[in-house]
Amino acid sequence: TILSCRILEQDSFPDTKDLFNVKGIKLTLPKEIKSILERAAIFAKRDSILDEFIEVLLTKKKLKIKATSSAGWFQEEASFDYKGDEVIFTISPHLLRGVLSKTLDCTLSKDKMKFVGTDWIYVTVLAKNKKSSDK
């Protein structure tokens, strides 16, 4: 993968090391997330794969996945050994499926979640001050 960034009025490429420097708690997501994700992807379906997304919510002792489409909505949860603050992020179900096919382990900070594989790193920025749509 090549990380690129348009430079308009700078002489050099911006320093990106802080984007990948995620310090926080180590988590292992529940194995059930893979089967839940398969079901959620049906309700995330759009005309373009680029428009498909699901919402992932981590709360005390639970992981919840939600998806909506014109055909309906989906929500399912799994027990999860998590004791921290509520965390919400949206992601393409296809991208998350790819990440989870390699690892269920991640690092969670107050504003990012990081997954690391043999030759890749995936970092997602977490939603701030957002409440889940069913609250």
Task: Describe the structure concisely.
The chain is 18% helix and 33% strand.
Key structural traits:
135 residues, alpha+beta, four-stranded antiparallel β-sheet, 8 strands, globular, disordered C terminus
Summarize the structure in words.
Helix 2 packs antiparallel against helix 3. The protein is of the alpha+beta class and 135 residues long. The strands form two sheets. A four-stranded antiparallel β-sheet has the order 1-6-7-8, with no helix packed on it. The protein is 18% helix and 33% strand. A hairpin with a 2-residue loop joins strand 3 (62-69) and strand 4. Mean pLDDT is 85; it is low at 129-135. The chain is built from three helices and eight strands; from the N terminus they run αβαββββαβββ.
Instruction: Specify the helix fraction band.
Output: 10-25%
Q: Which structural category do the helix and sheet elements fall into?
A: alpha+beta
Strand order across the biggest sheet? 1-6-7-8
Count the E strands.
8
* Alpha-carbon distance between the two ends: 38 Å
As a whole number of angstroms, the C-alpha radius of gyration is 16 Å
Mean pLDDT: 85
Q: Major sheet, described briefly?
A: 4 strands, antiparallel
Low-confidence stretches: 129-135
Secondary structure tally, helices:
3
